[in-house]
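User: Could you check the structure of this?
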Amino acid sequence: MDVMKALKERRAISFFDSGREVGRSMVEELVDTANLSPSSYNLQPWEVIVVQTPEKKKLLRSLAYNQAKVEEASAVLIIIADPGAVEANIDDVLKSQVELGYIKPDEVQKSRKGPFSLYGDPDSVTRKIWATKNTAFFAMSLMIAARGLGLETHPMDGFKEAKVKEAFSIPDNRIVPLLIAVGYPKEGAKLLPRAFRRAREKFVRFV
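Assistant: Sure, the predicted structure tokens are below.
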């Protein structure tokens, strides 16, 4: 499926076929593809927990306002943003940039200062926005990749973040912007027409 077709056909569906599994290799392909998403300074501040076992999906459902799709979908991905990814990943990123010829070895220290100067301390609002914004790129890429593989998804922000963190051992300094249910549509379920979208003139300005 080409990218434009995947973008136009992607929908947030609520009726998954609970008897049809998405294999681990396909989930890994989704994650690997989404991992190509852009990120500021290439710091990739995303982490993922793939929830697939019945007991863990049942637990997650209880923390997501009892939404049936959490259990019915083959997998639910907990998408995590890490404000500390600057510190965690900067050295690997710079090493790669030297090896690939993006920068020279004597430019490493100067380049290293950039994200710290721009995004501040790990607990700053600016750093949290940076991590969440870049992780959103990853999440959208994953949903488009899923559609390209013939899967359906549903992004979810109806959940108790603090409880999800506690239940799945996610550190307090992380942010959980959303969950993504992934699976195959339930056979025979009717998909209603695409919901209202604002006219282009309502949100675009050419200057």
